[in-house]
Structures are given as C-alpha cells and as structure tokens.
Amino acid sequence: MSSTAPPSVIDHVDERLLRTTPLKKLLARPELGSVVGAAAVFVFFAVFADSFLRASSLGTVLYAASTIGIMAVPVALLMIGGEFDLSAGVMVTSSALVSSMFSYQMTANVWVGVGVSLLVTLAIGVFNGVMLTRTKLPSFIITLGTFLMLTGLNLGLTKLISGTVSTKTIADMEGFPSARKLFASQLTLGGVELKVTILWWFGLVALATWILLRTRFGNWIFAVGGGADAARAVGVPVHRTKIGLYAGVALCAWISGQHLLFSFDVVQSGEGVGNELIYIIAAVIGGCLITGGYGSAIGSAVGALIFGMTSKGIVYAEWNPDWFKFFLGAMLLLATLLNAWIRKRVEATK
Questions:
Q1: How much is the pLDDT for 73?
Q2: How many other CB atoms sit within 10 Å of the CB of residue 178?
Q3: C-beta separation of 338 from 36 below 8 A
Q4: How far apart are CA 212 and CA 219, in angstroms?
Q5: ∠ CA(146), CA(125), CA(339), 5° rounding?
Q6: What distance in Å separates the CA atoms of residue 198 and residue 194, rounded to the nearest whole number?
Q7: CA 266 from chain center: how many Å?
Q8: For the segment 31-68, what is each residue's pLDDT rounded down to a tens digit?
Q9: Using an 8 Å Cβ cutoff, are 146 and 253 in contact?
Q10: DSSP assigned state of 268
Q11: How many angstroms separate the CA atoms of 53 and 316, rounded?
C-alpha cells in the first residue's frame, strides 16, 4: 500500500492574494510626494513670513490655489489619460471674451452670453479631441496649434469688435448680479473671507476623484494612459475617452473664464498666455506622470495649493516676487524626483 505524498509547498502566491500593509498603501499613493512638499512649503513660510499664519492669509492662499486648481483637475485627468492641452490657458480667456462680447453686442441678458460661451468652449475642447484622434498627431502639436489660433482670435476679434484690446463693461446689464454671485462671490466662514472659486475647486476635486476611483470611465482613463493599443484590445473606447477628457478641460476653462469675467466685468484679450504650463506643473507636482497612466485629482489639488502658498508666501515674506518662478521650478524638480523615488521603492517591495 503506497502512501500519498503530501502536496508540495507552493512558492508562488498570486499577487492579488498578498496582504498589503498600510505603509505600502501609503507609499503607492500618487499624491504622497506632493503632500510632503506642501508640508515643507507650509513650515518654510510659517517660519520666514510672520503674516503667513494669519486667518486672513488663509483665504488669500486658498483663492490663489483655487484659480489654478480648477484647471489643474481636468489637466491632471488628461495627463493620466496620456495627453496634454497647451491651449488650456488661453481657452479660459476665450471663454470670458465670448461671454462678454456676445452679451454686450447683442444687448442680451448676460446669462445668454454665459450659455453661448459654454457651447463655444466645449466645441473647442471637442475639436482638440477629434483632431487628436483623427489625425494621430501628438497632442503637443494639436493643442499648440489651437493655442496659437485662440491667441490670435482673442486679440484680433476683440480689437475688431471693441476697438481696443479689452471688452466693454457689462456690469450694468441684466443678469450680471446673479452671475457674479455664482462665479465670483465670496462668503465669510469663521471670520475668514473665502471666494466661491474655492467651493468650485473642492467640488471638482471630489467629482474627479469619484470618477477616477468609482466609475468605468475612470478605469478607461487609466487604461488609455497606460497604453492606448492595449486598452483598445480589451474594449476600451479610446477615442471617446480622449474626446471626453478634452471636453472636461473645456468645461473647467468655461468655469474659470466666467470667474475672470464676473470678477472684473471686463476682460483683457492677452490674458491666460503661459497659464497652461502652471496647470501642468501643478498636476506633475501632484504626482501625475508625463507618460500617463498614473496620478490623482487630489494630487493636482495639493500641487495647486503649493502654488498658492508659494506665490503668496513670497509676498508675505516681503521678498522680491521675481524669485517666484525659481521656487516654482525648484518645487517641480524636487516633487518629480521624490515621486520617482517613491515609485521605485514601491516597485522594489512588490
């Protein structure tokens, strides 16, 4: 009678069955590096700028962060999807110009101009997405072309219609007070005055995080950014996903554009140039990879917060504001290096 040999010990265990420690989960978060950087920036300016910790300064810092963060959220999602949008900065200005000039020239309620601006801005975003998917050209080339066209249209049409490089005031038009309340009002919370853009920013971060982590579209974004051909092979609608991401950038550009308009009631046609790089920087500092497939909306918010603390912290410290770009560039490099180091540590422990 022969005895049955005991089953051999299985050396290899499915990775999905391995237990992950809280530390490993923390290290795997894309925004970890930016959180560390934000804490360092906060401590730095808390020490060197006496007024930085005042309650009134908090509202100013959050407002500066929100004006960047509103756009950094969709730009981060687009980068996770493996693409860029160099037209995002001037698109904000285009949105404001369309809303202002349509309302003024047509002597219509400003809400009509706001609605027309939404349609035009979304059309620009969809145009970027369709051109990208149809031509197969790099998004850098497509959106650079859109950037140049919008820059020329913003200046050319504004001078043609208004006779100057800025729009006419619409502050006395019907619907202006209610539109300003939605896009450019402020509220007082605990003695601190907060701009409504902060609420828009927080809401967009929450929405984008839910989309990325809890919806099928979020899975498609990560899949497309990780590899479009592989994603297409498993049934992901790559073209629709990318067009949707560009439409998301356009939607947030519309929100930012309306805030720009209803904060000052006139718009300078040359504004917005260069802001697209700041949006990308905020997303990269927040943990998004240039190559796509990795990042988070929360990280983009932390990146925008670092921008807000740095831009206002230099003022509170009474330093020369010319140093701002130096600090921003240094934060970009340090955050990128820290993110790369964290990813290597995570991959080494798998």
A1: 97
A2: 14
A3: yes
A4: 7
A5: 90
A6: 7
A7: 24
A8: 777 888 888 889 989 998 888 988 888 899 999 999 99
A9: no
A10: B
A11: 10
